[in-house]
Design the sequence.
């Protein structure tokens, strides 16, 4: 999901750098208030941990393998602000030192994989506050899955707004691929959390005691946006004809992205209302199926000595 | 794990290696920005920028092909842009029949695809060259001088320092899993998908705990050595006149490139 330079227009790159800079400035302030001079060694090693954890893969099928992205896990074990800093540093170093993602588009990359994943992951996880362990784990797994989907959706939207791809191609393609990647993310996040719960439960208790309503609202809103907006954006069955129309929008979008979003969404709401509801329901069903899967997993790991 | 791949060339001694790291960071960003700003189909300007990058690579003693070879890392992402060839309306050039779909490559689509390809190919070379001629501590100082918050730079420095340590930790975990995963030839082994994911998840959890405890030990050790939360440096990093000259010269060349692109 790391976008290289050249794929996003300058307008979009600068816009997302600005959003990312504001969010990170707040994250720096809040994290320093929480951890003081302890922050640098803690967050630095945690960033290296996320980077290293992405190297742990597990075979899926036919030679392919899945691995962790880590946004939801970082948010859950470190809290949202430190989670954001850690993910931003991971993506920053991947771009700067390893050319995994560009420099000009780094703002967008950090936004998608560092901020969106943390907000969705942490917001939904807070929903589980005070509930019993299976419920907590189910919600955490769903949070991890949705965090990956939300990041993929934002990546797709940025590519579309930059005129690099057509909307009705990029949204289903990105979300389709990441629905599977997200499943791996959910399973690994869940198993890692279960492990930490068993060995050091004290590390997971501290962050979930007070406040957090804003995070829940933000996380649930973004998650709903994925479930509702994604099918809405890709609900155009007649292929290439449709694309040509979208491209007309894109040329305006590259010049003035703030003008085009309402123009684009309003005509859809009239005609595609029903399909949106259906698609949303499909999304909910998918999450429910995932939840059932996770119950099985957690029950099995709970009964094992 | 060793960082040879990263800093094999950083200890070189060319004019570029000696430049102030700020100039190099700003220069790389300026090259990328200039490349992305070039209009679609500005082939002459793309070629001009590429020649500039090749010249920089040669001047830094890296040889002509250093960045070009490493620039292929962007190839997988090109898959995301391929569809633009068929989806932009324009004069049809070539029709492809793939299964039930008929795809028509248009001139406008091909132009846009080629431009995206060129831009990302050039931009990634600029980033590769930046890392090749700048030592990592210098890069960190440059970020600090460019007004990145001190604690963010400190976090990144710690991260880069401990990447190798935790990379080794991961390697040990992976080796341990390999060692316990013997399979008889011709027989299915390794449990269900869920079980495999669970094993990987436990490894991640294990790695988290080891890292967390390591950060605790590290913090104690830093306190014992007088750490108070600030990061003094003995390197003044003054901008000299040749640094300013290099930066202005580069900006002028990039401006020329913009003119060529808009002829």
Sequence:
């Amino acid at each position: 999901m790391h976008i290289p330079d050249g794929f996003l227009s300058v307008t979009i790159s600068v816009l997302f750098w600005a959003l990312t800079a504001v969010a990170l400035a707040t994250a720096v302030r809040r994290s320093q208030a929480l951890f003081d001079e302890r922050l640098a060694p803690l967050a630095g090693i945690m960033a290296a941990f996320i980077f290293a954890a992405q190297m742990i893969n597990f075979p899926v099928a036919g030679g392919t393998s899945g691995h962790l992205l880590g946004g939801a896990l970082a948010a859950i074990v470190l809290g949202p602000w430190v989670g954001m800093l850690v993910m931003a540093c991971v993506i920053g170093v991947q771009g700067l030192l390893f050319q995994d993602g560009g420099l000009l588009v780094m703002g967008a990359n950090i936004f998608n994989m560092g901020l969106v994943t943390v907000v969705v992951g942490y917001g939904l996880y807070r929903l589980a506050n005070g509930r019993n362990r299976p419920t907590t784990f189910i919600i955490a797994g769903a949070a991890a899955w949705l965090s990956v989907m939300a990041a993929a959706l934002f990546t797709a939207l940025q590519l579309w707004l930059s005129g690099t791809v057509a909307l009705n191609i990029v949204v289903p393609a990105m979300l389709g691929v990441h629905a599977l990647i997200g499943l791996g993310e959910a399973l690994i996040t869940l198993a890692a959390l279960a492990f930490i719960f068993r060995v050091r439960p004290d590390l997971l208790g501290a962050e979930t005691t007070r406040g957090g309503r804003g995070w829940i609202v933000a996380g649930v809103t973004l998650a709903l946006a994925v479930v509702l907006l994604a099918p809405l954006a890709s609900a155009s069955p007649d292929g290439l004809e449709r694309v040509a129309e979208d491209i007309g929008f894109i040329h305006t979008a590259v010049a003035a992205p703030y003008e085009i979003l309402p123009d684009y969404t309003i005509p859809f709401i009239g005609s595609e209302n029903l399909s949106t509801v259906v698609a949303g329901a499909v999304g909910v069903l998918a999450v429910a199926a995932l939840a059932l899967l996770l119950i099985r997993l957690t029950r099995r790991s709970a009964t094992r000595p | 794990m060793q960082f040879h791949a990263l800093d094999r060339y950083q200890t070189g001694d060319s004019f570029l290696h000696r430049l102030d790291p700020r100039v190099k960071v700003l220069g790389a960003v300026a090259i990328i920005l200039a490349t992305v700003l070039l209009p679609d189909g500005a082939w002459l300007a793309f070629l001009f920028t590429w020649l500039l990058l090749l010249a920089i690579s040669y001047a830094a003693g890296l040889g002509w092909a250093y960045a070009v070879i490493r620039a292929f890392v962007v190839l997988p992402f090109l898959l995301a842009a391929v569809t633009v060839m068929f989806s932009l309306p324009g004069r049809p050039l070539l029709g492809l029949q793939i299964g039930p779909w008929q795809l028509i490559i248009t001139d406008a689509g091909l132009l846009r695809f080629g431009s995206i390809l060129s831009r990302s190919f050039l931009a990634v070379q600029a980033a590769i060259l930046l890392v090749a001629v700048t030592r990592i501590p210098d890069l960190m100082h440059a970020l600090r001088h460019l007004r990145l918050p001190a604690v963010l730079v400190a976090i990144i420095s710690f991260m880069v320092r401990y990447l190798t340590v935790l990379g080794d930790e991961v390697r040990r975990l992976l080796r341990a899993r390999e060692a316990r995963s013997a399979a008889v030839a011709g027989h299915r082994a390794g449990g269900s998908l869920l079980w495999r994911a669970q094993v990987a998840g436990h490894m991640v959890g294990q790695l988290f705990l080891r890292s967390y405890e390591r950060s605790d030990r590290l913090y104690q050790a830093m306190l014992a050595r007088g750490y108070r939360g600030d990061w003094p440096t003995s390197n003044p990093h003054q901008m000299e006149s040749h640094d300013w000259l290099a930066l202005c010269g580069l900006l002028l060349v990039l401006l020329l490139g913009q003119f060529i692109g808009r002829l």
Notes: DSSP finds twelve helices and two strands in chain A.
